Automatic annotation (TrEMBL):
<dbReference type="GO" id="GO:0070930">
    <property type="term" value="P:trans-translation-dependent protein tagging"/>
</dbReference>
<dbReference type="GO" id="GO:0070929">
    <property type="term" value="P:trans-translation"/>
</dbReference>
<keyword id="KW-0963">Cytoplasm</keyword>
<comment type="function">
    <text>Required for rescue of stalled ribosomes mediated by trans-translation. Binds to transfer-messenger RNA (tmRNA), required for stable association of tmRNA with ribosomes. tmRNA and SmpB together mimic tRNA shape, replacing the anticodon stem-loop with SmpB. tmRNA is encoded by the ssrA gene; the 2 termini fold to resemble tRNA(Ala) and it encodes a 'tag peptide', a short internal open reading frame. During trans-translation Ala-aminoacylated tmRNA acts like a tRNA, entering the A-site of stalled ribosomes, displacing the stalled mRNA.</text>
</comment>
<feature type="compositionally biased region" description="Basic and acidic residues">
    <location>
        <begin position="132"/>
        <end position="159"/>
    </location>
</feature>
<comment type="similarity">
    <text>Belongs to the SmpB family.</text>
</comment>
<dbReference type="InterPro" id="IPR000037">
    <property type="entry name" value="SsrA-bd_prot"/>
</dbReference>
<protein>
    <recommendedName>
        <fullName>SsrA-binding protein</fullName>
    </recommendedName>
</protein>
<dbReference type="InterPro" id="IPR020081">
    <property type="entry name" value="SsrA-bd_prot_CS"/>
</dbReference>
<dbReference type="GO" id="GO:0005829">
    <property type="term" value="C:cytosol"/>
</dbReference>
<feature type="region of interest" description="Disordered">
    <location>
        <begin position="130"/>
        <end position="159"/>
    </location>
</feature>
<dbReference type="InterPro" id="IPR023620">
    <property type="entry name" value="SmpB"/>
</dbReference>
<dbReference type="GO" id="GO:0003723">
    <property type="term" value="F:RNA binding"/>
</dbReference>
<dbReference type="Pfam" id="PF01668">
    <property type="entry name" value="SmpB"/>
</dbReference>
<keyword id="KW-0694">RNA-binding</keyword>
Length: 159
């Protein structure tokens, strides 16, 4: 769905545990309503979205519990680090996301914040379903098996 994914060089914050705790069903790119000091703080690469989530309230999508630290040079004109941030999505996308959350019990999980090619701050948002303990154990087994395969292939290549 999201065409303009961020590259490694312009990723500001990444939720690395999201793919472990959730089964990602769909992703989309959303804009963010930010203040000037928040953008400057993001450009410094100091944001955390590991504990955050998105929710639909009053026909809008909000990012909750994300941490963008204060910009030190801003003095008294700074923003609140844990404020709720409005996400910008099309009405059709909003209806689909709200339906998935209400109907199927899905969760809206932020995956990463990045700056796109035109310098706009974007959020990659995922519609996800929570994994239970056996699914998480299976993920760990699969990851360990892939690491072992890579080691064996590397060893075989040296001989």
């Amino acid at each position: 769905m999201a065409e303009g994914k961020g590259t490694k060089s312009n990723i500001v914050a990444e939720n690395r545990k999201a793919r472990f705790h959730y089964e990602i069903v769909d992703t989309l790119e959303a804009g963010m309503v930010l203040t000037g000091t928040e953008v400057k703080s993001l450009r410094e690469g100091r944001a955390t979205i590991a504990e955050s989530y998105a929710t639909e309230e009053g026909g809008e999508i909000w990012l909750i519990n994300s941490f963008v630290p204060e910009y030190l040079q801003a003095n008294r004109f700074n923003h609140a680090p844990k404020r709720r941030r409005k996400l910008l999505v099309h009405k059709k996308q909003l209806n689909r996301l709200a339906g998935a959350v209400q109907r199927d019990g899905m969760t809206l999980v932020p995956l990463k914040i990045y700056f796109n090619e035109s310098g706009m701050a974007k959020l990659e948002l995922a519609v996800a379903k929570g994994k239970n303990a056996p699914d998480k154990r299976e993920t760990i087994k699969e990851r360990d098996w892939n690491r072992q395969k890579q080691r064996v292939m590397k060893e075989a290549g040296r001989d």
